[in-house]
Q: What sequence folds into this?
């Protein structure tokens, strides 16, 4: 293997910046908070305008279901943290297991939410329903906000679960990369990573009669770090989902 | 020049990567190629926007229905606004020139997240496609104006839902670029490139990126609610269901006012690059200019209410917003004074980039002063929703950002494509554009003052003379634009080969080959001086 190839491998690594990846994630989380922030602003305005209607409308929400969901989501945050911690200790099996558990809890939350919404819809408490049209304006707004906010939150739970499904194999994999040295055409010699991507390639002018290979496996701390950041960032996202719910719960269920 | 950047390698235009043909562009994660992708796409949309603008002006050449019906005219000003704002001027300088030059200016090989960068272009294209689709599907092109004000946007039968979704998607692209730039500037500065050695264009991109990150989500949410209102009828902005349409305006402007700083700040950054280069002087008041960018970004958040003086707010809210509006003019003033001070006693070379930049200062000042008239409570009542506001806005956005985008093209074209742009045709283009621009928009200021409302396809006969002048101006401006872009297009193939540093610039992009090598720098440079130290630079080649 030539120095050029080693140089290529090294160069690819220096492009990756764990701190940068985390900064990027935090910036993204800011944008998420602001997204929900607009809705919280609307909530604040309308609740100030219609305190009695909000109070009355909130009594129709099922506090027990809400509490169960809060417990589920808080527990899922715990399992998420445990997954990140296990990954940090190089225990990939445990990390994967906790991640899967977090996914299940997220699903449980959504199932619960489904029953909650369908009960409301059965009672005619949804925007545009004839039943809701007879209610006071503040109640209509309460339900409008209820569906918008818990809906947007539910969508984030769903996205979180989807992200975890993608991250599961990342959390499970060993931090090494298999590379392959081979010829692609009659005259082109290339070193490729098994996961895809060419690390180095050369088209020698003269016939090659000897190739010296220095390594095939590469145990790589850089790659381990990269996987860890992916798991950690997934965790950060999941905590965002949790934190938003922590605010939604009292604002909708506990203001009676 | 002490910076060690290693031997030149193959340029990014000639580099043969994994993909061939068109795929080598649309799948490239090279920030330079993505910059060119953005530039091409946004200039194409600019052409469409200009065309619609010319047609609108043609309609206004005489009172009554001249060319199109009221309904079509409404769709036209909506489209013109949507295309020019969401597809052209918001991505504008940051996505095209920011992508191309930010990594080079800070001594990096690429942005922090190259793949995310490519994704942001694809999201932009997806949003643009949706916007185009919204014209031909559903109830036809939206007719609400680009502001989508409730309650009309909730009621109209036109295809507002899809158009709003398109703007929502475009917002994502903007957020991704913002996240990428903030991270890049924090993490990828070359050794020795301290914060106060950053070129001022980088500072302006930094301020812009923060606004993109912190304001765009509010727009995303607001537009999402408009969609939900139209689909399921939440009632949040609907007075019939207890909601308040005024809250829509608040939420919309909480984004859309900072958005005008997304549009103008990068343009101001380009001014701060061009003026030192062509007056061969160190920039005057480096820190003042850098911090004024941040100040504009910050205070710009707090002034959205000045769009709503006549919408129904308390007097206290109105005067507070007015006061803050005056405050945000201060950092802009600081910049203008520092630019002029940089020119003072400089060895000024009035090459096309500087010419366009000086016209920016002139036009932006008219835009700024008319902004103060719009921002004052008493005068605002008189000119609110009149052609005056249209004139003011175009002086700031077209005379400001538009002219600076042209200046940036002229300044950086040799670096981006390795060819010089001939100066003579660009003088002619400038003359036509400058005359056409003022003939087009200055009458609007007067018309608005006389009481001609905006967004009407019809007007009283006494407004006609000035409207004819304005329409004639639009033709001269269009001719200038044609000369400008035809010259650029020809220069791309037939211009003289550009040297590495044709203008004698002192920032990092001029220290590498034209066009830049694939990896920008063979070795990451070590920075030992500020960006505008002309004393130590060899004379122009």
A:
């Amino acid at each position: 293997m030539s120095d050029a190839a080693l140089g290529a491998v090294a160069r690819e690594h220096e492009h990756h910046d764990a701190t940068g990846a985390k900064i990027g994630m935090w910036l993204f989380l800011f944008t998420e908070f602001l997204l929900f922030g607009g809705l919280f602003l609307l909530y604040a305005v309308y609740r100030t305008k219609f305190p009695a209607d909000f109070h009355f409308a909130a009594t129709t929400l099922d506090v027990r279901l809400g509490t169960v969901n809060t417990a589920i989501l808080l527990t899922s945050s715990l399992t998420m943290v445990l997954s990140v911690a296990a990954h940090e200790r190089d225990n990939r099996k445990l990390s994967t297991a906790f991640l899967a558990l977090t996914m299940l809890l997220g699903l449980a939350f959504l199932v619960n939410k489904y029953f909650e919404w369908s009960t409301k819809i059965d009672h005619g408490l949804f925007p545009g329903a004839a039943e809701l049209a007879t209610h006071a304006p503040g109640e209509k707004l309460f339900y409008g906000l209820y569906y918008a906010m818990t809906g947007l939150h539910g969508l984030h739970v769903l996205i979180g679960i989807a992200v975890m499904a993608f991250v599961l194999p990342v959390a499970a994999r060993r931090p090494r990369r298999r590379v392959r040295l081979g010829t692609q055409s009659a005259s082109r010699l290339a070193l490729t990573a098994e996961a895809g991507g060419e690390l180095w390639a050369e088209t020698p002018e003269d016939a090659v009669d000897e190739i010296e290979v220095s390594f095939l496996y590469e145990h790589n701390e850089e790659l381990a770090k990269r996987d860890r950041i992916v798991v950690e960032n997934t965790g950060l996202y999941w905590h965002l989902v949790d934190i938003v719910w922590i605010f939604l719960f009292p604002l909708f269920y506990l203001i009676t | 020049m002490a910076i060690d950047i290693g031997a030149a390698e193959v340029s990014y235009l000639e580099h043969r990567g994994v993909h061939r043909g068109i795929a080598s562009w649309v799948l490239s994660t090279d920030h330079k190629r993505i910059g060119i992708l953005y530039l091409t796409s946004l200039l194409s949309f600019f052409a469409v926007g200009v065309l619609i603008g010319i047609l609108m002006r043609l309609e206004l050449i005489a009172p009554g229905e001249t060319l199109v019906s009221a309904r079509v005219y409404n769709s036209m000003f909506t489209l013109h606004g949507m295309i020019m704002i969401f597809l052209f001027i918001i991505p504008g300088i940051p996505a095209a020139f920011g992508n191309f030059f930010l990594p080079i200016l800070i001594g990096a090989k690429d942005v922090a997240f190259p793949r995310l960068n490519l994704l942001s272009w694809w999201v932009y294209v997806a949003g643009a496609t949706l916007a185009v689709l919204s014209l031909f599907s559903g109830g036809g092109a939206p007719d609400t104006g680009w502001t989508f004000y409730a309650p009309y946007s909730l009621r109209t039968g036109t295809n507002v839902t899809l158009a709003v979704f398109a703007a929502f998607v475009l917002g994502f692209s903007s957020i991704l670029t913002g996240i990428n730039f903030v991270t890049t500037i924090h993490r990828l500065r070359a050794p020795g490139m301290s914060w106060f050695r950053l070129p001022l264009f980088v500072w302006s991109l930094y301020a812009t990126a923060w606004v993109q990150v912190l304001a765009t989500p509010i727009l995303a949410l607001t537009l999402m609610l408009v969609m939900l209102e139209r689909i399921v009828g939440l009632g949040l902005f609907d007075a019939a269901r207890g909601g308040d349409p005024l809250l829509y305006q608040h939420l919309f402007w909480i984004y859309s006012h900072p958005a005008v700083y997304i549009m103008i700040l990068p343009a101001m950054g380009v001014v701060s690059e061009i003026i030192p280069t062509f007056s061969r002087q160190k920039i005057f008041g480096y820190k003042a200019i850098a911090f004024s960018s941040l100040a504009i970004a910050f205070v710009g958040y707090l002034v959205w209410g000045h769009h709503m003086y006549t919408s129904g707010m308390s007097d206290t809210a109105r005067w507070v917003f007015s006061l803050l509006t005056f405050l945000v003019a201060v950092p802009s003033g600081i910049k203008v004074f520092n630019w002029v001070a940089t020119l003072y006693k400089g060895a000024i070379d009035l090459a096309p980039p500087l010419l366009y930049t000086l016209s920016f200062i002139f036009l932006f000042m008219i835009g700024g002063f008319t902004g103060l008239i719009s921002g004052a409570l008493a005068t605002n009542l008189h000119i609110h929703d009149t052609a005056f506001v249209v004139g003011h806005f175009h002086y700031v956005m077209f005379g400001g950002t538009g002219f600076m985008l042209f200046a940036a093209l002229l300044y950086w074209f040799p670096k981006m494509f390795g060819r010089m742009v001939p100066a003579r045709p660009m003088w002619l283009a400038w003359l036509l554009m400058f005359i056409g621009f003022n003939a087009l928009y200055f009458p609007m200021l007067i018309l608005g003052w006389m009481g001609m409302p905006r967004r009407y396809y019809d007007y009283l006969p006494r407004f006609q003379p000035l409207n004819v002048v304005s329409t004639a101006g639009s033709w001269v401006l269009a001719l200038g634009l044609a000369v400008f872009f035809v010259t650029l297009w020809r220069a791309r193939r037939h211009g003289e080969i550009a040297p590495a540093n044709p203008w004698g610039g002192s920032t990092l992009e001029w220290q590498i080959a034209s066009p830049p090598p694939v990896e920008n720098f063979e070795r990451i440079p070590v920075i030992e001086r500020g960006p505008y130290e002309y004393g130590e630079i060899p004379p122009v080649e």
